[in-house]
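Students often ask why we bother encoding 3D structure as a string. The short answer is that it lets us treat folding as translation between two languages. Here is a chain of 98 residues written in the first language.
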Amino acid sequence: MSDNQSGFGAYLAGFIIGGLIGAVVALLLAPQSGEETRSQIREKSIEIRDRASETVEDARLRAERAIDEARMRVDELSQTLRERGGSVSQVDLPEPKN
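And here it is in the second language, the structure alphabet:
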């Protein structure tokens, strides 16, 4: 699971950096005044930052849901094993960090 998380982190970083580079290059090559260019760069960087924040928050929520589903599944499986006469030691999963 850590490979998926590091892969997603690398993808997210590449997406953000690529977006910033693309926006800056497009603005620098556009025929307009320096003040207008700086203003657009500032606006685009705020927009990209907001999108990245939303993406990170979405990923965090999906991870929390996956953890909750895994906990429920572990509880169901251990209950099933107990009902069938097997013994299962209680697994302590870490609580999600908020």
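Translate back mentally: The helical segments are 2-29, 34-83. Keep this in mind for the problem set.
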